[in-house]
From TrEMBL:
Name this polypeptide is given: Hydrolase
Listed GO MF terms: hydrolase activity
InterPro entries attached to this UniProt entry: HAD-like_sf (IPR036412), HAD_sf (IPR023214), SPP-like_dom (IPR006380), TPP-like (IPR024197)
SUPFAM superfamilies: HAD-like (SSF56784)
Keyword Hydrolase appears in the UniProt entry: yes
Length: 278
């Protein structure tokens, strides 16, 4: 079985210093930047996932760049999964090394299916202004990441921009203080589908909190999303019942996700079924 999971706000979380102190040994430091803690993971989830990795394939699937993924030492260096998807699907990591063939293939797909990045820049410049955009980055020559003051986003203009970009082959996602603008060809589903071909015909259980994770959850055989974030807010507005969410929100939603993965794995594990029926 494959467990393909988003990282930020799904498996790892930032926490205020006083909250982190209060939680104590219930959480582990997942990431440091210049010696300062950037994110944490539930200790229970980490140890259970570490054990599960002996029986299934864990694939971190993140919109972070290769460099930003490497920074999450608890996962990239401690758990050391054999496969990872970064850059929202634009890069695949095989045994710690990026796969250049996959990256070249994605760049070709982008060229074939989306308008050129300079046209996107011109459209963005009409809406994204310095009075609410703190910084902008073009990540891994694939997509845009903007850090913003969310409460100042001009909602109507942003919605119109998103609709226009959608017609031109680009997707918009607002996650907390970040606005991502990504070519449709750069997505988590296609990268995981490629890895599934390498690994073998396995069932996939997936988790994620944002609209950029939606395409992965739709592709998976099983999915569970945390009870917070962009995907949960969309479900509250639309009420489609398309996704199952955890009871818990925040960092300990991860415990429910790992429990769910364990249950699905047990269901498809012949050795467990034999033990259960005996």
């Amino acid at each position: 079985m494959i467990f393909a999971s988003d990282l930020d706000q799904t498996l790892i979380y930032s926490q205020p210093e006083d909250r982190a102190t209060e939680l104590g040994s219930r959480i582990l430091i997942a990431e440091l930047i210049d010696g300062k803690v950037r994110s944490y993971m539930s200790a229970n989830s980490y140890h259970r996932l570490q054990s599960l990795m002996k029986e299934l394939t864990f694939i971190p699937v993140t919109t972070r760049t290769l460099k930003q993924y490497d920074r999450i030492h608890l996962i990239s260096q401690m758990l050391q999964p054999a496969y990872a998807v970064t850059s929202n699907g634009g890069n695949i990591v095989l045994n710690g090394q990026p796969d250049p063939e996959w990256h070249r293939a994605i760049l070709a797909r982008v060229q074939d299916s989306s308008v050129h990045v300079e046209e996107v820049r011109k459209l963005m410049d009409q809406v994204l202004h310095s009075d609410w955009v703190i910084s902008s980055t073009y990540c891994d020559d694939l997509f845009f990441s903007h850090i913003v003051e969310r409460d100042k986003i001009p909602q109507l203009e942003m919605r119109e921009l998103s609709e226009e970009l959608q017609r031109l082959g680009w997707t918009t996602s607002i996650q907390g203080r970040k606005v991502y603008i990504v070519p449709k060809a750069v997505n988590k589903r296609d990268a995981v589908a490629h890895l599934k071909q390498i690994i073998g015909d396995e069932k996939i259980v997936a988790s994620g909190d944002s609209l950029l994770d939606q395409i992965l959850l739709d592709f998976a055989d099983y999915s569970l999303a945390p009870r917070h974030g962009e995907l949960f807010r969309q479900e509250q507005l639309q009420g489609t019942g398309a996704y199952t969410f955890t009871e818990e929100s925040g960092i300990f939603a991860t415990d429910e996700i790992i429990e769910y993965v364990q249950a699905v794995h047990n269901k498809h594990n012949p050795a467990f079924r034999i033990k259960e029926s005996s």
